[in-house]
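Why does this matter for the project? Reviewers at the last site visit asked to see concrete outputs rather than summary tables. In response, this paragraph embeds two records directly. Each consists of the residue sequence and, immediately after it, the corresponding structure tokens. Nothing has been edited or filtered.
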Amino acid sequence: MNEASPSTALPDGLRVFGAAQRYVQGAGALDAAGGLVSGLGTTAVALLDAGIAALVGHRLTTSLRAAGVEIQCLEVDLEVTHENIARTVARIEAPRGRETVLLGVGGGKAIDLARAVAWTRGDAFVTVPTVASNDSPAAMAVAVYDDQHRMVEVIQTGRNPELVLVDTALIGGAPARFLSAGIGDAVAKKFEARSCRAAGGTNQHGTLSLQVAGAIADCCYEALRASAPAALAAVRRREVDQALEDTVEATILMSGLAFENGGLSIAHSLVRGLQSVRGAKEAMHGEHVAYGLLVQLAVEDASDAELLDLRGFLHSVDLPTSLAELGLPDATADELDTITQRCLGSPHRDKTPATVDHAGIRAAIARVEALGTR
């Protein structure tokens, strides 16, 4: 796996904080798309997740055309591979360049595909997430896979979106599991940013972090602990309340700012292994990260009390805390070795002050699994 460097190299000693130019959130935000996008260009291309095109396509088109923005809508249901990026670029009729706005509308795949296409063409870029399952809507990176959904590259485009438009009524109408996954992805950022900074590790810009990144990561964690269980209850009631607004802000905006500017560590490294083994590979990214966070804290020799406290919170928001809950009961020695070796191959594995080796990862997994039997 190759993790590309940011597109613009910087002299040693500089530190970078990056963010989307504008973030807009609230119930009904989709209907404001026209006025917001019209300031970026007069032509738009929307890549719409095929699963939600019927739900949002007409509203989006109506809003943009009312604001004088011509729009081409393309439904997509593709793995983010280099081949599919090229095929999608070839389908677009609009001229390349900043007069065209590329919108990614839907879940993570549609947004990442749109990000890659916008980066390839040089277009302005807008994300319109319809689920809050991870923090990719506000990010600059594109995870590229092969046809078997094995990660082959992470492209750091060096560009965050010009606009992130989050309609919480759409988020609240999605299955609750998506929001749970987003909580799992976001809750790790406090601990990963803390570990990365303590180890002198670099962030997604390839520089050391500024203090503000850690402050945002801490705020993200506090918001989730205060609001996430109530937010899931609101989703099940099909209501948008303050707990849901706060949780969506944490899972999309704060989490994205924290990881890009604060850095990642073992929790995300373990995802590489969990994606590769029986059963667990079917779990969502945030479910992998939640389990990976427990392993990270075990690697870093956290107390049983801290692990059990986190475990209780993860259960309260329907996140897995054991390999069996991830879909991997009775893991074999070979499967555990696969998880461990792929974790050790991650570029984030050393972004912790703890010693990270095969024996340590295996021991941390064993400790997390043992906590589940207590």
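We now turn to the second protein, recorded in exactly the same manner.
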Amino acid sequence: MIQFKKAALVMALTAGMIGGAQAAVENVTGLTITGGDFGMGSAGGTPITAGGASPIVTGTYQGSVSGSNATSLTAFAFFGTPVYTFTAASSAGIAGGGPAPTGTVDTAAGTIAMDLSSFFASWNGTNFNQGNAAVTGTYNAGTGAYDMAWTSLISGGSFNGQTGYWHLKGTATAAAAPAPVPLPAAVWLLGSGLIGMVGVARRRKSGNTKAA
């Protein structure tokens, strides 16, 4: 009876682990940009739209500092001068950069989390790292719509010490979740095996007792 109770406990724990494996978290594969805004020192102010290099594709670097909307992730101007954005591991003479963009969405919680530490802005011939490794926001699993914002301290250049406030929105694509294992069948199969093992162990123990 004790062995059977142990088997039942293991079955219950296994069911919990298998159920927990069916997470609602999916990997982001791309981010289109349909709007947003940028502010210097405070949120909002300058509307943002998509540049020619949008959408942002995860796992790769995009855009360049060539000074063209065709190679920019976003399109907007600051003080009448265009701002071009791109992702890179580093930029000459500028601190910052990092891995190519990655992220996840939680379809159950309705959230998105991105590592955009490699996000750069180029303004008036100067590059600024404006990335953040912990960008968060909302996500609609039905429409794919996201809305996220972050801040980044500017180091060097004309705006040294100022904080950039970024807000992007659009739609996100995410990798399809693996097909879930049917819980009843999985648990029953594992439970049957455990009970069988308990039976073998009991028979062995009984045989050893008689032999003694």
